[in-house]
Automatic annotation (TrEMBL):
It comes from the Bacteria. Pfam families: DAO. GO terms for molecular function: oxidoreductase activity. Keywords: Oxidoreductase. Residues 37-391 form the FAD dependent oxidoreductase domain. InterPro entries: FAD-dep_OxRdtase (IPR006076), FAD/NAD-bd_sf (IPR036188). This is FAD-binding oxidoreductase. One of its GO terms (cellular component) is cytoplasm.
């Protein structure tokens, strides 16, 4: 039996639950002197780039300073949607970008979801993919207006699979009285992210990519012929093309990209096994879930339906997984009181990266290709943008992504150090409280 102050099960570990079945595997090989394409970052975006290149006869080298797949790609919640992730934190998309352009973005997002399903089937990716649908809870009455706009944007693509549920029907989705209604998105799914990134790496390797972990990118110099002389902790190599796919782990060796990204730690916990019957009592439809708060929650059943996995922005101050796990446990029990007494076995975090315009970005700057800034919704987006980046590297594709027309903004004097995040976190907490959301005492 847990308490609010001690929710930990015996043997609690500060490690992703996903790594129990699919830990990041070491990838070792000699560093070549010259490559056609060097991809920096061994997560979803980098691996998807390498896979698409390989399928078209171009061999890529993927490097990562940690093991391949070590970052957020194997630490996230494993929730997928297409255009449903657009506007998650933006209520002014149409006003900012115009209705026609937003319609293009939304249609591309929906197609990216369909392409993801096709990729899983084509490559035989062992990732426990399930099209389960997604429910987004409205934390305040006025949040239903924003969800209505999102549903209209999604349905305008022709999918017609987004619906609003009134407050009296929330119990059909979650055993809680906290939400004032919500949006049900049928075109959404779940995966085991650890298994997905592992399978994606295996597919990229089958297509001819070389994957090497433990290689730190330390900068690149453009040469007269357009190629790059790249410095690493294991020596120098020459790359005809260079791709940055480092997202929330972008370092000072990529200053232009670093100035456009706000890294934020996102935390998760896994409950002890409580059995499918109890999981279904809490989450009757076994979907993936989120909400509309500034400091949002995201949660789901484990792939075997015996645990609850719960995540959120538990801290804007430090990266202490144990302290954050206590907070997340309190949030979980406050939201779903039937889970009182359930202990947790795993607690972890990973870095996501927000862009200043809260939109994902793919493109080229000074000859360096990039895909990053997925704003916490990166599984489908980064898989898609990896494919887009590969097509750009090869000189084009059947169609040009609408997202390549977005500028990648920064702010004056910002160098990549998000010193302001504690202030932002406090402001977000205040906004949620003004909207009427307060975490109850569950002690």
């Amino acid at each position: 039996m847990s308490t609010a102050s001690d929710p930990f099960a015996p043997g609690f570990v500060e490690r992703p639950y996903w790594w129990e079945e699919a830990p990041p595997a070491p990838a070792e090989a000699p560093l070549p002197d010259e490559v056609e394409v060097l991809v920096v970052g061994g997560g979803i975006a980098g691996l998807a780039t390498a896979l698409e290149l390989g399928r078209n006869g171009v061999k890529a080298l993927v490097i990562d300073r940690e093991a391949i797949g070590w970052g957020a790609s194997s630490r996230n919640g494993g929730a997928l949607s297409g255009a449903g992730s657009l506007g998650k934190v933006r209520s002014d998309l149409v006003e900012t970008f115009g209705a026609t352009f937003v319609a293009e973005l939304a249609a591309e997002g929906e197609q990216a979801f369909e392409d993801f399903e096709a990729l899983v089937a084509r490559e035989g990716l062992d990732c426990q993919y399930v099209r389960c649908g997604r429910f987004v809870g409205a934390h305040a009455p006025k949040a239903m207006e924003a969800l209505q706009r999102r549903a209209e944007m999604i349905n305008a693509t022709g999918s017609e699979e987004a619906f609003l549920l009134p407050r009296e029907r929330v119990h059909e989705e979650i055993a809680t009285d906290r939400y004032h209604g919500g949006m049900l998105l049928l075109r959404a799914a779940s995966i085991h992210p650890g298994k997905y990134v592992r399978s994606l790496a295996q597919a990229a390797a089958r297509a001819g990519a070389t994957l090497i972990g433990g290689v730190e990118y330390r900068g690149a110099t453009r040469q007269a012929d357009g190629a790059f002389a790249v410095e690493t902790n294991r020596g120098r190599l020459r790359a005809r093309h260079l791709m940055m796919a480092t997202n929330g782990y972008t370092g000072s060796a990529a200053p232009w990209h670093l100035r456009r990204l706000i890294p934020v730690a996102s935390y998760m916990i896994a409950s002890e096994p409580i059995g499918e019957e109890r999981v279904r009592a809490a989450l009757p439809k076994l979907r993936v879930y989120g909400d509309t708060k500034k400091i949002l929650y995201y949660f789901r059943p484990s792939p075997d339906y015996t645990r609850i996995l719960f995540g959120g922005r538990a801290s804007f101050v430090d990266n202490d997984a144990r302290r954050a796990s206590v907070r997340l446990h309190r949030f979980m029990v406050d939201l779903i009181p039937d889970l009182a007494g359930v202990r947790i076995t795993h607690g972890w975090f990973g870095n996501v990266a927000f862009a200043f315009d809260m939109m994902p970005h793919v493109g080229v700057h000074d000859g360096i290709h990039y895909a990053m800034g997925c704003n916490g919704s990166g599984v489908v987006a980064m898989t898609h943008f990896g494919r887009v980046a590969a097509q750009q590297i090869m000189g084009g594709g059947n169609s040009v992504s609408a997202f390549t027309r977005l500028t990648f903004p920064t702010r004056p004097f910002y160098t990549g150090n998000p010193w302001f995040m504690p202030l932002v976190g406090t402001a977000y907490q205040l906004r949620d409280r003004l909207d009427g959301w307060r975490v109850k005492d569950v002690g």
